[in-house]
Amino acid sequence: MKRDSLIFMTVVPWVVPVLLAASLMLFLKGHNAPGGGFIAGLLTAVALVLRLLAYGSESVRGKESLYINLIIGGLAIAATTAIVPTLLGYPFFTHTFGHVHVALLGDIELASAALFDLGVYLVVVGNVVTVIVALTLSDEPPSDRDAQANGAEGTGAQDGH
Amino acid sequence: MGGLLVAVLLPMAAAAGLRFAVGARSRAAGVAASTVTLICFGLVLAAAAEHLHAPSSVSYPWIPQLGLNLTLVADGLSLLFALLITGVGSIVFTFATAYLGPDENCRRFFSYLLLFMSAMLGVVLSGNLIVLFVFWELTSVSSFLLIGFWHQREASRNGALKALVVTSTGGLAMLVGFVMIGIVCGSFELAHVVEHRELLYASPWAGPAAFLVLIGAMTKSAQLPFHLWLPSAMEAPTPVSAFLHAATMVKAGLFLVARMGPLMAGVAIWTPMAAGVGLATMVWGSWLALRQTDLKGLLAFSTVSQLGLIMSLLSQASPAATSAGLLHLLNHGLFKGALFLLVGVIEHEAHTRDITRLGPLPARMPRVHTLLAIAALSMAGVPPLGGFVSKELFLEWQLNLGLFTAVVAVVGSVLTAAYCFALAIGLARGRGAPVGEAAAAHDPGMSLLWGPAVLVTAAVGLGFAPQAMVGSLVESATAAAVLDAPLHLHLALWHGWSTTLAASGVAITGGYILYTFWWQQSSIVPATLITDRLYSGFLVGLEKGARAITDSYMSGYLWRYLVLILSVGVTAMVAAVVGSGFDSPVVWNARTTRAHELLIIVGALAAAVAAARAPTRLAAILALGANGYSLALLFSLLGAPDLALTQVMVETASVALFLAVFVYLPPYRPMRNKRFRPGHMAVAALFGFGVAGLVYVVRGMRVAPTIAGHFIAKSVPEAGGHNIVNVILVDFRGLDTLGEITVLSVAALAAYSIVRGLRERRADGDIS
Fold first, then answer.
1. Each residue of A5-58: pLDDT tens digit?
2. Is B156 part of a structural domain of the chain?
3. Which end of chain B has the lower number of beta carbons within 10 A, N or C?
4. Is residue B536 part of a domain?
């Protein structure tokens, strides 16, 4: 699947970093302003899908396991932040937060909930990209004849026999 | 006591450690596992020396909030079983090291075997009912893995599944019984429960609890009508059959009966039910064993029958019967373990275990046959072997109990003796000439023979010196299994002239006559089990039913799924709306809709109509996107920035998804070309109005003050965040979020697997 749109291919390298930066910002300020792991994850995923659309499925072939590892890693991080407090004698899912003062950046809040949010972020990115990559990685678009057969019942998408 | 904890945990740790220590086909796995087993045997021996006459227990808290403690009990009963497990285990592990072929995955085999031994030791040493249940199920799981070790064979897989289904069903019944006992008596600690047993007797739960616990014991010990799984379990490698399905795991049910004896003997149904089932199983199992031509099948049914015999003794809660049962249990572990190993040797050398194909054994395999004959005669109860001593005690007990049990016991003994003679004498005469590779079979080297030889020697020794060998062990175990019973046990080969001796004589003579008559039959038709047919019928029916239900709605047409899903939603919403009765006062915000808001709503509606009427797919996608962005705009105007952001992201991602898969979609058929479907329209309209009605009703249904104030107040001081939505997601309701992302991940992985599977099948040409 390769779309040779010159404009698209030229713009995407400029847009994707901006989107990623925006998603990083949404993630970091999520605890105090609109944003958070879920939204930031979606934005990152959109950026990655844009890249996929611009450069075709060749750019992601063979990287499926990477995206699946994102899901697994995200779940592991989220579950770990929930379980670690029980090992320290606190109830399940106890979060804590504190403030540190860093020169130039000012007051920075560190919350263990942000780690959990990181897990959510990774899971969302992994999910969206895994599904889209899986759907686009078909070797060949079905021929017209197949498509005709599959689409015989209007919007019906047959499960393939 | 610490030694016993190590004995339980060490094999489990070793089972996991083997994965990293040795290669998959390395024989070192067997050596390591055998060493671990020997260490465990030593630990149990040391514990036995200390605690045999001074029972004690130790408790390690596990989940104390739930009353769950890893309580280990060292008394006669647990030590007797632990010695049997580790003792026979040591022999079987070393035997298996020499037995497994060079191409087998030794590491996996011994991991499973170690896991099983750990679980089995946990069962017999546990003093907490729930912990006992956990280990009990672990034995079922490891048994499943071991029966299915040769997973490429269909029979192995079916046998493994059957064993798991039957024993875990029984295990669940047992758990329910345990819970009843625990709730009534106030604790899951066995010692506490036994102390407060009067509470159980006084409650209406005593009968049901006894029944359910007994179901667990009966499934595990393959008692009628649950005996079907044991013959199928013979698909396991023979060392497994010897260890799990003869010497140890199938005795877990017997252990349970003995362990629960002090508690359950006071419940009316306990003894009659267990003893009745035991005797019936003994007779029926030996009859089925007689009709086998496969040596392993014969031994399987013989095990079923012998377990029934022991069950009928252990359930009596009388010192005499229990000690007889425990002695026979030890005997059975020895001679049956040896028989299984020897049949394994025969199969190893002759490549068959069919009686009709083996021919006369002594000419080619004299040592194997001698050992086999001694073990079989011990099972028949022929003096002066160990089996004779315990068989005498069994007959004595049943003779004293009454005429009916006496007749049943003698009939069972006759049948038992008959198939034992078939093993001992029949294999010497052979049923015709050896066929195929069996003709060239010969005795194996000592590496395969010394294991059975040790077991047979012990079985012979139990005949000559039972008191010296196991007298104090059986006595101490009986004391643990029967309450307040003074016992002065004296085991001996010679009991004097008595009716019991006469009954033994009748059993052996009758058995010999039956065997000679039976051996002359030209053909034996192996029995098929009624319960087996019921089980298969049940499985087939289950699959057919499930397929029929699935096929009834999985038509492959998207519109049918949508109609079904939306109809269910409509029904639920209509029920909720109508059920509310519209009588609750609805509180609306007192503000009028502003003009630009109205404009956005109209725009969203127009986009929805445009999506439905679009002439091309691209137009439909864009119209849908416009609809979603309009809603996002509305959210942001109404003070829900997080919702708006999310809506924008979701819309963008879905448009991107559509574009990505655009070329793969079937040709688009615009709505206007389709015939009018009033049903679809009705479902769509109802769904829309249903959502609106639901929102309306929910607004008026506040039963408690809003929790929003709580979140607003607590967000900064307790979670350090000003964005309440995010604080709720990651902190206050973090568990919900964890559940949601887990479900999301499972769905994504499933979608990925399905798509990839379709692609691979398409590539293989399975799908046109």
1. 788 888 888 899 999 999 988 888 777 777 788 889 999 988 888 888 887 767
2. yes
3. C
4. no
B272 cis-preceded (ω within 30 degrees of 0): no
Structural domain including B760 reads 704-768
Q: Which residue of chain A comes nearest to B658, CA vs CA?
A: A132
Q: Which residues lie closer than 8 Å to B60 by C-beta, 6 or more apart?
A: B5, B69, B70, B71, B72
The residues with which B60 forms a beta bridge, in sequence order, are B70
Name the domain boundary from B703, B723, B755.
B703
Quote the Cα angle for B528-B530-B531, to 5°: 115
Q: Which of A30, A64, A134 sits opposite B726 (nearest CB)?
A: A30
Q: Which residues of B touch A141 (CB under 8 A)?
A: 663-664
Residues in chain B where the model's pLDDT stays below 50: 768
Q: Closest CB to A113: pick one of B663, B666, B719.
A: B719
Q: Are residues B234 and B219 in the same domain?
A: yes
Can you tell me which residue has the tokens 């808290």? Answer: B61
Q: Check whether residue B620 and residue B602 sit in a common domain.
A: yes
**Number of domain units in chain A:** 1
Contacts of residue B741 in chain A, CB cutoff 8 Å?
A: 74-75, 78, 119-120, 123-124
Query: Which parts of B483-534 are beta strand (E)?
Result: none
ipTM of the complex: 0.79
Long-range (24+ apart) CB contacts under 8 A made by B687-695 are B687/B566, B687/B569, B687/B570, B687/B573, B690/B569, B690/B570, B690/B573, B690/B574, B690/B577, B691/B573, B693/B573, B693/B574, B693/B577, B694/B573, B694/B576, B694/B577
**pLDDT score recorded for residue B591:** 66
Is a pLDDT exceeding 50 seen at residue A161? no
- Residue at A68 is within a domain: yes
B319, B356, B481, B647 from B489: Cα distances, Å: 9, 44, 14, 81
What is the model's pLDDT at position B91? 92
Residue A33: which domain range? 6-138
The residue among A120, A139, A146 with the most chain B CBs within 10 A of its CB, best to mutate, is A120
Note whether A95 contacts B556, CB cutoff 8 Å: no
In chain A, the residue whose alpha carbon lies closest to the alpha carbon of B644 is A34
Using CA atoms, how far apart are residues B231 and B229, in angstroms rounded to an integer? 6
Does one domain contain both B47 and B131? yes
Q: Which residues of A touch B649 (CB under 8 A)?
A: 39, 42-43, 46
Q: Which of B485, B507, B523 is the last residue of a domain?
A: B523
Contact in structure between B586 and B700 (CB atoms under 8 Å): yes
Domain annotation covers residue A151 = no
pLDDT category at A1 given cuts 50, 70, 90 is: very low
Amino acid code (one letter) for B250: V
- Residue B586 domain flag: yes
Task: Please state the three-class secondary structure of B19-61 as a single string.
Answer: HHHCCCCCCHHHHHHHHHHHHHHHHHHHHHHHHCCCCEEEEEE
pTM over 0.80: no
Judging contacts by C-beta atoms under 8 Å, the chain B residues touching residue A49 are: 653, 656-657, 660
Find the closest chain B residue to A37 by CA distance: B726
Q: What is the pLDDT of residues B575-613, one digit of tens each?
A: 887 777 666 566 666 567 788 888 999 999 999 989 888
pLDDT tens-digit profile of B700-714? 776 777 788 888 888
How many distinct structural domains can be found in chain B?
Answer: 3
Query: In this structure, what CATH number is given to the domain that contains residue B686?
Result: 1.20.120
Min CA distance, B259 vs chain A (Å)?
35
- Chain A closest CA to B717's CA: distance in Å? 10
Min distance A113 CA to chain B CA atoms (Å): 6
Confidence of residue A153 (pLDDT cuts 50, 70, 90): very low
User: Residue A46: which of B653, B669, B759 has the nearest Cβ?
Assistant: B653
